């Protein structure tokens, strides 16, 4: 009973309907400028100074190899037969993102993650670690004290830890050593790349840019990329791009989509999704949707026009005889609510939605996650 109540709450509370009318958004929220992006950096290093919580060297031989290699570079030669028993060292991966237009000397935050079986990185110090990009070039150097956040508590001999001890951060722990070349504004042209490909939205963006900055300023290359002509001077170009990003554009309405989580029964719709006439039978459930066109004629000599209205009716019946009848627009939200009212399970809802989609009654894309 408790599980059924939970499913009912999920089914009823997870139906989200977006407004049918699209609102104006800033261009910087709809698109990005080609070439202006972050670059991921990664490096392999050692954290030292741990309080006995480092890697167990018998199970992580790469930690010992890294220590030997580091000591050799520092002029310390170890006996070839020597077996190091290290408890205060941990092998880690260091990751960060290099923002666009970063210059040498800029500081970045880094994330330090254990790749062995260290119990904790708390109190450790990251030794100088080169950070490389996808091209194998070094773009930064990381070093510093690792901060592991969280709360620890102990009571009646038991110990509880509310955090993740194998991952830490170093604030301003990396220094940029190399700048990434950027061809922004080359040939006085930039590329605006929409976050989602849409020909209607691309046309609206071109229209808004040309209306604001003059004809022939922007031209759509396809449904995603828009070529924009920029001023030649760098200072003028920056001011132009600032005004361009703040431009308000009303995006086109997206295609109707229904997303369902098969495990929890949650249903999310990006807009009001309607259904055509259909009848579905699943187990002890039956769903019938009828749509009738009712003409409404004006009074004689009134000069009005005949209007046809749609009267939709949803009937959901259970084998036990329980019937839910909705005399209103046949929308998917109404069907889901009515199925939830008579105790349909997520599996029932999934099968019914798939049947409606297969029959062509569901006028939306159905995605199951």
TrEMBL record:
InterPro entries per UniProt: Flag_FlgI
Signal peptide per UniProt: 1-24
Location relative to the cell: Bacterial flagellum basal body
Record key words, sorted: Bacterial flagellum, Cell projection, Cilium, Flagellum, Signal
Pfam families in alphabetical order: FlgI
Coiled coil feature spans: none
Stated role: Assembles around the rod to form the L-ring and probably protects the motor/basal body from shearing forces during rotation.
Family of this protein: Belongs to the FlgI family.
NCBIfam families reported for this sequence: PRK05303.1
Subunit-structure text: The basal body constitutes a major portion of the flagellar organelle and consists of four rings (L,P,S, and M) mounted on a central rod.
The protein, known as: Flagellar P-ring protein
Organism name: Noviherbaspirillum suwonense
């Amino acid at each position: 009973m408790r599980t059924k109540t939970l499913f009912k709450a999920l089914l009823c509370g997870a139906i989200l309907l977006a407004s049918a009318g699209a609102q104006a958004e800033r261009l910087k929220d709809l698109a990005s400028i080609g070439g202006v992006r972050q670059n991921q950096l990664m490096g392999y290093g050692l954290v030292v100074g741990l309080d006995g919580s480092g890697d167990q060297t018998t199970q992580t031989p790469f930690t010992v190899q890294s220590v030997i290699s580091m000591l050799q570079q520092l002029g310390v030669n170890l006996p070839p037969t020597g077996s190091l028993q290290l408890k205060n060292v941990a092998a880690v991966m260091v990751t960060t993102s290099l923002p666009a237009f970063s210059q040498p000397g800029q500081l970045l935050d880094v994330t330090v993650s254990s790749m062995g079986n260290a119990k904790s990185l708390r109190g450790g110090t990251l030794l100088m670690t080169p950070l490389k990009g996808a091209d194998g070039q070094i773009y930064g150097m990381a070093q510093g004290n690792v901060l592991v956040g969280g709360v620890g508590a102990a009571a009646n001999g038991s110990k509880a830890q509310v955090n993740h001890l194998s991952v830490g951060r170093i604030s301003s722990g990396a220094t940029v050593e190399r700048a990434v070349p950027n061809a922004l504004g080359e040939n006085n042209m930039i590329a605006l790349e929409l976050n989602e490909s849409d020909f209607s939205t691309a046309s609206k963006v071109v229209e808004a840019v040309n209306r604001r900055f003059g004809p022939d300023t922007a031209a759509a290359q396809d449904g995603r990329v828009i070529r924009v002509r920029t001023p030649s001077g760098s200072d003028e170009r920056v001011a132009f791009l600032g005004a361009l990003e703040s431009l308000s554009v009303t995006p086109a309405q997206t295609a109707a989509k229904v997303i369902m989580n098969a495990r929890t029964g949650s249903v999310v719709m990006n807009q009001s999704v309607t259904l055509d006439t259909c009848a579905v039978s699943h187990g002890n459930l039956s769903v019938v949707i009828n749509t009738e066109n009712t003409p409404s004629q004006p009074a004689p000599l009134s000069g009005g026009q005949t209007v046809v209205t749609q009267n939709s009716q949803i009937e959901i019946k259970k084998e036990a005889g329980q019937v839910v009848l909705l005399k209103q627009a046949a929308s998917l939200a109404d069907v889901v609510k009515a199925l939830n009212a008579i105790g349909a399970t997520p599996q029932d809802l999934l099968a019914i939605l798939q049947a409606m989609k297969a029959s062509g009654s569901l006028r939306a894309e159905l995605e199951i996650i």
